[in-house]
Amino acid sequence: MASFDSAAASSRLASQQAYLAARCHYMNGVGYYEMDSVVRACEQYMTALEIMEERFSEKDLVGSKAKFMALTYTHLTQLFSDQYLHEQAIFFGKRAMVYNDRVDASCWHSAWVLGEIGSNYNITGAFDSAFFYYNKGLEALCDTNNLTYRDLSVQSLFLTYEINGEASAVLKPLQYLLDQSESDREHLARCLTIGEILFKERQYDLAYVYLSAVFHDSESINSKKQAAEWLMEINKAQNKVEEALECAGFLAQFATQDENNSALKSMLTELYNDNRLRELDRLQQQRLKKQAKKSIAVFAGLLLVSLLCYLMYRKNKKRQQNLEVKIEKERQAHIIKQKALGGRLKSSNEALKIQEKRTSDLTKAAMLQQRRKEWSCLEVFMDESICQEILAMLENKVVKKTGDYPELCLNSIQLHDLSFAVEKHFHEFEKTLTDLYPKISRNAMSQCLLYLLNLEDVQISALLSCDYSTVKKRTSKLKTAFKTKKEPRQFIRDLVS
């Protein structure tokens, strides 16, 4: 009896230590996230979940443990949502709601999680699912005088506009919610929403008022960037060159941010996939344990039957032998069945990976096709003054090596003008190229812009004032990134033609 009590006490101590260890990882994750160390925060949160799921069964995850699980999944929902990884954010949001329901979480907390799930569904184009979760979030709230209710209302109204395209039906309630703002941050967030609708409706004068407030006063970099993009379009349409250049200058500082975000998203996606694989493996192990128990029970029953049969028919050796053969066949059939189930699971996982890759390829192809519809023709771009200026610099000059004509080196203003001209005729050309081929460096991107002018590598080396061997190395890397046998110059020009 004393030995049993000691074992029980030891088990309780191990459980408490595991829970404390998980909470330490959770707090580390909170600290890392506050320091903008997103990947390390994600690792800590997932480690906390792994400890809890390995140590405790689902029936044990109640009370404070369920609340802890809900908080951890909520933080992961916010983390992946902030990085625009919508599939992962939806998954963790739904897991958070499972544990919120177990502990009867506060209404505003559940409403926030439901709103995040709806928002990510909205971005992926699943409007029915988005409406469903927005409405669930609004229904979960006990009152209407809070920020969460206003946020959900704005999201629901904007989704209504996206589906119906009727701005007049949503602008008045959005203006009312703007007037209800309780902070500058909330006020500017509402201005961005209203400004976007007015921009899409081509009411540029009104849109300019709201978007300018966001661009000049918001502390959110993402909001300022979005406002700057729309303001640049408005200023172009109204021939406000200086204002357009101001917005372009602001956006230029984030030129390489998409590449960095792409690497960050890749690391987070890898962590998510590893977590899902561990969870699937854990569930598989649980299924195998249950099946093993059933197999033992079946085997014990068969053994008992065999024993009874032996006692009943011990005088009949032949019948006893036939019975043993039958039992062995059933056992082998069970083993074969288990192997077949394992093979089907592996095949299913491989098929899922192939389907995800195909979906990603189709999405990129559709994005490129849409961009090409919006882009100007190459001949019109070549008529730009900066293009003609560069070509005039090279006229009657036979460049054989980099140092032949030092005066050919382009200055920062010329490079900026070339980038601006490319953006003018091939909207989001650099972003599109980076999305399609994430391995392209910033220096290689400058080389790609010059390829649009149909220049040779030796000419580009002179214009960029770098060794010809360096340009050739970038050319080789570009061919590898593009996965093509064409010369990068021809590939780039074909891309926009």
Helical fraction equals over 70%
Q: How many beta-strand runs? A: 0
Radius of gyration: 31 Å
Q: Estimate the mean pLDDT confidence.
A: 83
Strand content: under 5%
**Structural class of the secondary elements?**
mainly alpha
Order of helices and strands: HHHHHHHHHHHHHHHHHHHHHH
Could you tell me how far the N terminus lies from the C terminus, measured between alpha carbons in angstroms?
A: 84 Å
Please tell me what the overall shape is. Answer: extended
Separate helix tally: 22
Please summarize the sheet with the most strands.
none
Low-confidence stretches: none
Task: Describe the model.
The chain has 497 residues and is an all-alpha fold. Helix content is 81%, strand content 0%. The protein contains 22 helices and no strands. It has helices at 2-34, 38-55, 64-82, 86-103, 107-123, 127-140, 147-164, 168-179, 184-200, 204-217, 221-237, 241-252, 257-313, 317-374, 378-382, 385-394, 412-425, 429-436, 442-451, 457-464, 468-482, 488-496. Helix 11 packs antiparallel against helix 12 (241-252), helix 13 (257-313) runs antiparallel to helix 14 and helix 20 packs across helix 21. The longest helix has 58 residues, at 317-374. The chain is extended and about 110 Å long.
